[in-house]
Amino acid sequence: DAKTTQPPSMDCAEGRAANLPCNHSTISGNEYVYWYRQIHSQGPQYIIHGLKNNETNEMASLIITEDRKSSTLILPHATLRDTAVYYCIVRVDNYGQNFVFGPGTRLSVLP
Amino acid sequence: SQTIHQWPATLVQPVGSPLSLECTVEGTSNPNLYWYRQAAGRGLQLLFYSVGIGQISSEVPQNLSASRPQDRQFILSSKKLLLSDSGFYLCASGLDIPRSTGELFFGEGSRLTVL
Asked: Quick one: which of B12, B22, B25, B90 could link to B72 by a disulfide (CB 3.0–4.6 Å)?
């Protein structure tokens, strides 16, 4: 699996958009980009994923660059409850392939 | 969607004692199952994953072992716990694409303290 690089921490003002970057310069053509988040002392929660096109759901938007070497998770209106560690993961769709979580980005939403 | 049950939620054990953490899955069949560990203030470390009954892959050599006696049951064990085994243990379940979107579902975790 391709490795990912994320900033260790970020701050965001409540109500503003939070833009979390992820570099995956060695991503291969059949690898998906997944985003999860982990609120303290809970299991990680799936947010969104994509392959080539930008994606949007009720939680967030995922912007993937045309060369697929980086992506950005956007929380359009961050709330205090969005304070968490955000993980960017790339994985292939092979049978039995495992997920590998890096250190992630600790997002602090400030009042 | 899948529901993951883990127990016990909290466990305090002395060094050298055995361990058994259990995980069961509802809402799907033949899932891929995973055990992760998270030490205090650290990221998630993949310990084991399983693609079927009796099939276990170990990612990190250590004194822990895993078993999958039934399709939706995954057990993490140790014969003799070490202090370094303390942490937050998470069970996860997922299906391969195209059976699903490929996301993982996590349990609520089991917090182990070894004294």
From this structure: B25
| DSSP secondary structure, B56-73, as one string | EEESS-SSEEEEEEETTE
Pairwise CA distance, residues B86 & B78, whole Å? 12
Please tell me the distance from the alpha carbon of residue A57 to that of residue A39, in angstroms, as a whole number.
19
Most confident option among A7-11, B61-65, B97-101: A7-11
**Cβ neighbours for B99, distance < 8 A, ≥ 6 positions apart:** none
Contacting B residues, span 16-75, partner chain A, CB-CB under 8 Å: 32, 34, 36, 42-44, 46, 49, 51, 57, 59
* Partner-chain contact A96 B109, CB within 8 Å: no
The shortest C-alpha distance from A108 to chain B (Å) reads 15
Out of B42, B46, B107, closest to residue A98 by CB: B46
Q: Of A72-81, B30-39, B91-100, which one has max mean pLDDT?
A: A72-81
E strand segments, B71-109:
73-78, 87-94, 104-106
Q: Give the gap in angstroms from C-alpha B37 to the nearest C-alpha of chain A.
A: 11
Picking from B77, B67, B50, B94, the residue whose alpha carbon sits closest to that of residue A43 is B94
